[in-house]
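Structure ticket #2291
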Amino acid sequence: MDANRPLIASLLDQLTTVIVGKDDVLRDAVTCLLAGGHLLIEDMPGVGKTTLAHALARTFGLRFARVQFTSDLMPSDLTGAAVYDRQRQEFVFHPGPLFAQVLLADEINRASPRTQSALLEAMEERQVSVDGVTHALPEPFFVIATQNPFEQIGTHALPESQLDRFLMRLSLGYPNRRAERALLAGEDRRDMLQRLPALVDGTRLRALQQAAGAVTVSDALLDYVQALLEATRDGRWFVHGLSPRAGLALLRAARARALLQGRRYVVPDDVIDVLVPVAAHRLVPVSGAGRDAAGQLHALVQALPLP
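Resolution: structure written out below.
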């Protein structure tokens, strides 16, 4: 058994005390963090998206910042700005909330496309440029963005280029009856969050991420991933297929899922487990498919032979 497995199990156990009845979503969220990717949570207001972000930050011992995205939010509200210091007689950079280790971009699709695009450099390059000067972001750096359904008033769809920067998209959904009863009868989640201990710190998390990156992928498994990518591109299932960058993201997530399971090698089930959260937001089903992207991916997996 991998030596990291007891620690990962304790991380998941702590998260389940706050987010009740959503074990699969929590596994995916921790997988995303161990893979070093950014997370998009799409769901109705009030189902626990913000609580999940807080719980992840506290459990992993990371510095946290929250930005409520609104229609009048400016890019400088995220990145910070250079302000003239009369005493020093020079411009001094004042960092914005992007310089946290975990940034919760709450209701990201309520901001204008200009402000949404300000996240792109930070998410991809782990740095921001202000007035021609580049500033490195802290390590680790993790964006958790939430968005409401597009049919709600005042929302702007994220462009494909920004969707592609998120390693995973998840949905919490309504709790089942038993979980909701525990929420109604239990302690306020905000009070619980205040008492959550940090089980790891930034240095330990970086070590876990490096361990995930070192998980072995066999040639046969690479053949299977390539077959999946090629199947999405043949025009039968989707309008456009997955890009090479999406293929790399799928492998990163599969490696992290293997680590989560206590293995140092990837098996096909790891790839299948993370395929929908990694790929569905990057794909548009062909006309007349009768299924959403997730449904198409499930059908595609059934049609492909396992290695």
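Closing remark: The chain has two domains: 20-186, 215-303.
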